[in-house]
Automatic annotation (TrEMBL):
Function: Glutamate-gated receptor that probably acts as a non-selective cation channel. May be involved in light-signal transduction and calcium homeostasis via the regulation of calcium influx into cells. Glutamate-gated receptor that probably acts as non-selective cation channel.
Basic and acidic residues: compositionally biased ranges: 927-940
GO cellular component term of the entry, any: membrane
PANTHER family per record: OS06G0188250 PROTEIN, OS09G0428600 PROTEIN
Region of interest (Disordered), residue spans: 927-951
Designated name of the protein: Glutamate receptor
């Protein structure tokens, strides 16, 4: 039994060991995947990349070897620095080796043909050095740029140009696929920030030193001093050495290099570095990590072992992209699977050539999709593809200073120029910055510390050629005369003085010479359009004079800011329009104001009567007498001649406010009427352009002016247009008149009109409309950097005392005539100027009426709400007569009370009493009422006088005939 158990145990151990060996054998089995690499192995720089690729494969599988079944097998081919060699290498790798992907070719020129082959064979082409944007225009889905596309760095370069306000740049690039591919993107980006590219310097990759010098001398003769260099390190090194020799690396010059040179900084020798002092550059930013530091150390040891003949080898970002690209490919191959790793052979004839005889990769689409989805953090930073291109990274801005290129800032798509690169955690910047203050201090070429202005005038002793108009009219602006001794031209005038004052404010010297645009006999050589066009042709560097800023001219040249007023107006004679008719006294006030005054006079009289008639004998009497007194009192306040005494405080309050209103009205009326009667009113003879056209009137314009085209556009017949050359001719045409060979109106620009009116201010004026123009400006070539500087200088002249002195010099102190463009308006005063006063008077009167009404109701409450059963009609009549009659309880009526007592006690001796007679009147129906109330008819003799009077008036009001009972004499 023990032996059986021992044998069983041994058998179990045997089967376990065999199974483990089988599993280990299965796990140790890997699937090779062929991958091609095309590099220029004759150059040490590309050997560095190959070492990075080999180290990447070794590092990747040493970490993931147990998890990955696939293994990349590299097949390297040498392109021999030739496009044909790269194409042959690609064809061999696809047709014979049947690679599943190709890394390379190294240059953009070599990559173009290989990309097309990869698209046909569905083999992904991954390039970590070919950065030309033109490669993406091939629109091949099987091409992946594992490097920064050159189009992404142009925004960083344009941000630098904008930060220092340079207006012109010249790109200097190698004339091949690599150099020319960036130019359209660079030009468009610069134009977006209003920067001009006057010239493109394309240099052949095989250019000799003499050819380089010839091109640099051409650049030196230009005004522009900002150059953007985009070329390989080989040609770029020779260019800067030559530029240093010809004197183009001194103060005032600006050189900006792209990453095509900046990334190869460490591979340049000391002579090249010395010639590049002060150069700015942009290069992709690589985060400094522990993994990168460790890799650099291992790379140096590995590279020295593999290439002992190469000394001081260094690692740049292209080597890091190569390392990350092979890592991404290894991950994608494993993800794509190993189901279809073969090639489908084409059905071709035996006579087909090699380009038609290679098959299609069955795994190409899966591998392409896997590569597009790959995303990881590599040595160069975050590595992922977006639309077949490596996701853009921030750019570091460097400045060559001494033996090193020091970083002075960064550029990011989100924040623009920044001093430090923020992490997503502490990023507090949300705005896009284009300020040069975001960069560290820069040492410019020639060890200059000031910011170069970006251009130079003159160059090599050249002086600015300035054209000036030759004219016989309005010489106050520009006057050209001959020096009798030297026979040279002397140029002077208002425009000339303004220009020379502006030049003095420039922060640099600007030598120039004037060149009159005229014929030998002293006449003008053409119109102002012809003169301006000379700048476009290059015959003049600028034009200084009374040239108007016009749209059609701005298509060919640039203008500075205007230094004069703008606009074209119509000038017409004036006539005295003084009104001398009999009704002129009504003109100071408009009809609505007259009506408002009348209404308020009536209303104020009524208010005073309401407040005074119960307590003031002067406002009592017959009805028409009271109406007349009230209106008389109100209207007499207009001249403050009212004699009636006011006893009510409410009435006094109303009259105080009303007298204030009347005072302002009378004073305003007096001032306006005085103006109408004494001031001369000059009115234009014509006020409408359409009236001139309709009547067929003659109009004038200045000879050679663009106003002629304006008048034709307005509809004037050319036969009705007359020309003048001087202000004297202008006045003479007006004096003749339109029907006698003269003109009825003239059209000209505001500066000429002001000069004309300064001499004939009392005879003419301008009327609307004013046609807008931009005034006079100085002319420069399109895109000239002088435009902005001279414009700022013009502002300094016009805002200071200098302009006033220049105007007084050429136009005199009396040049400022009253503004003729101001339209003549009516002198009549309207209600809109006084509605506030009327509002105050109205509120005061209404308030007084409300107070009076409240007091009256309170006094008559027994009448309104009697204890007896009087009807509403009786109460209303009683209330009305109480309002209409005297208020005997008021202190102003005490004299009447004395008179009443005299009636009862007898008159004073020697003084007749108006109450000496007592009249008793019986009203219809009154007898019964009195008898019932008093029980005795004789009790009526004790009825109050006030009630008796009221009964009389009520009877009269009701057309009843009272019966006189008796008349008694005391």
């Amino acid at each position: 039994m023990r032996n059986n158990h021992s044998e069983s145990f041994l058998m179990f151990i045997f089967f376990v060991s065999v199974s483990m060996k089988m599993v280990m054998a299965e796990n140790s089995t890997t699937i090779p995947v062929n991958v091609g690499v095309i590099l220029n192995l004759d150059v040490g720089f590309y050997k560095m990349m190959l070492s990075c690729i080999n180290m990447s494969i070794s590092d990747f599988y040493s970490v993931h070897g147990d998890q990955y079944k696939t293994r990349l097998v590299l097949t390297t081919r040498n392109s021999k620095q030739d496009v044909v060699g790269a194409a042959a290498a690609g064809l061999d790798l696809i047709k014979n080796v049947e690679v599943k992907a190709i890394l390379g070719p190294p240059t953009s020129m070599q990559a173009s043909f290989v990309i097309d082959m990869g698209a046909k064979a569905q083999v992904p082409i991954i390039s970590f050095t070919a950065s030309s944007p033109s490669l993406s225009s091939l629109r091949s889905p099987f091409f992946l740029q594992a490097t920064q596309n050159d189009a992404t760095q142009v925004k960083a370069i344009s941000a630098i140009v904008k930060a220092f306000r340079w207006r012109e740049v010249v790109p200097v690039y190698v004339d091949n696929e690599f150099g020319g591919g960036i130019i359209p993107f660079l030009t468009d980006t610069l134009q977006a920030i209003d920067v001009r590219v006057p010239y493109r310097s394309a240099i052949s990759s095989t250019a000799t030193d003499d050819e380089l010098g010839e091109e640099l001398y051409k650049l030196m003769a230009m005004q522009t001093r900002v150059f953007i260099v985009h070329m390989s390190s080989i040609v770029g090194s020779r260019l800067f050495i030559k530029a240093d020799k010809v004197g183009m690396m001194g103060p005032g010059y600006v050189w900006i290099i792209t990453d095509g040179l900046a990334d190869f900084w460490s591979f340049m020798n000391s002579s090249v570095v010395d010639s590049m002092q002060g150069v700015l550059g942009v290069q992709p930013y690589v985060p400094k990590t522990k993994e990168l530091t460790s890799f650099r150390n291992r790379f140096k040891r590995k590279f020295v072992q593999d290439n002992p003949d190469i000394v001081d080898a260094d690692l740049n970002v292209y080597g890091l992209w190569a390392y990350d690209a092979i890592t991404a490919l290894a991950m994608a191959v494993e993800k794509a699977g190993t189901t279809h790793l073969g090639f489908q052979k084409p059905n071709v004839s035996s006579n087909s050539n090699d380009l038609e005889n290679f098959g299609v990769s069955l795994s190409g689409l899966n591998l392409l999709q896997a590569l597009s989805d790959t995303n990881f953090k590599g040595l160069s930073g975050n590595f992922s593809f977006v639309n077949g291109q490596l996701k853009p990274s921030p750019y570091e801005i460097i400045n060559v200073n001494g033996d090193a290129a020091r970083g002075i800032g960064f550029w990011t798509a989100e924040n623009g120029l920044i001093r430090k690169l923020y992490t997503p955690i502490n990023n507090t910047t949300s705005t896009y910055s284009t300020s040069n203050s975001s960069l560290a201090p820069i040492i410019w070429p020639g060890e200059a510390t000031f910011i170069p202005k970006g251009w130079e005038i003159p160059t090599n002793g050249k002086r600015l050629r300035i054209g000036v108009p030759v004219k016989g009219d309005f010489t106050e602006f520009v006057k050209v005369r001959k020096d009798p001794t030297t026979k040279s031209s002397i140029v002077e005038g208002y425009s000339i003085d303004v220009f020379e004052a502006a030049v003095k404010l420039l922060p640099y010297a600007l030598p120039f010479d004037y060149f009159p645009f005229g014929l030998p006999d002293g006449r003008s050589a053409g119109t102002y359009n012809d003169l301006v066009y000379q700048v476009y042709l290059g015959n003049y560097d600028a034009v200084v004079g009374d040239a108007t800023i016009r749209l059609n001219r701005s298509n060919y040249v640039d203008f500075t800011l205007p230094y004069t007023e703008s606009g074209v107006s119509m000038v017409v004679p004036v006539k005295d329009n003084k009104n001398k008719n009999a009704w002129i006294f009504l003109k100071p006030l408009t009809w609505d104001l007259w009506f408002a005054c009348l209404c308020f006079f009536v209303f104020t009289g009524f208010v005073v009567w309401v407040l005074e008639h119960r307590i003031n004998e002067e406002f009592r009497g017959p009805l028409f007498f009271q109406v007349g007194t009230s209106f008389w009192f109100s209207f007499s306040t207009m001249v403050f001649a009212h004699r009636e005494r006011l006893v009510s405080n409410l009435a006094r309050f109303v009259i105080v406010i009303w007298c204030f209103v009347v005072l302002i009205l009378t004073q305003s009326y007096t001032a306006s009427l005085t103006s109408l009667l004494t001031v001369q009113k000059l009115q234009p003879t014509v006020t409408d352009v359409k009236e001139l056209i309709r009547n067929g009137a003659y109009v004038g314009y200045q000879d050679g002016s663009f106003v002629l085209g304006l008048l034709k556009n307005l509809g004037f017949d050319e036969s009705k247009l007359l020309v003048y050359n001087t202000v004297e001719e202008w006045d003479a045409l007006f004096t003749k008149g339109s029907g006698n060979g003269g003109i009825a109106a003239a059209f000209d620009e505001v500066p000429y009109i002001k000069l004309f009116l300064a001499k004939y201010c009392s005879k003419y004026t301008t009327v609307e409309p004013t046609f807008k123009t931009d005034g006079f400006g100085f002319v420069f070539p399109k895109g000239s950097p002088l435009v902005s500087d001279v414009s700022r200088a013009i502002l300094g002249v016009t805002e200071g005392e200098t302009m006033k002195k220049i105007e007084e010099k050429w136009f005199g102190k009396e040049a400022s005539c009253p503004d003729p463009s101001t339209s003549l308006s009516s002198n009549s005063l309207g209600i809109e100027s006084f509605w506030g006063l009327f509002l105050i008077a109205g509120v005061a009167s209404v308030l007084a009426l409300l107070v009076f009404l409240a007091m009256f109701i309170h006094e008559q409450w027994d009448v309104i709400m009697p204890a007896d059963s009087r009807s509403l009609r009786q109460r209303s009549i009683k209330l009305f007569w109480n309002f209409y009659n005297r208020d005997l309880s008021a202190h102003t009526m005490r004299r009447n009370e004395v008179n009443d007592s005299q009636i009862q006690n007898g008159p004073v001796v020697g003084e007749p009493s108006p109450s000496a007679y007592s009249v008793r009147i019986e009203f219809p129906g009154e007898q019964d009422r009195v008898s019932s109330e008093n029980g005795d008819r004789n009790s009526n003799e004790h009825q109050p006088l006030q009630e008796t009077s009221s009964n009389i008036e009520v009877a009269i009001q009701n057309h009843e005939r009272p019966r006189v009972i008796e008349i008694m004499q005391d």
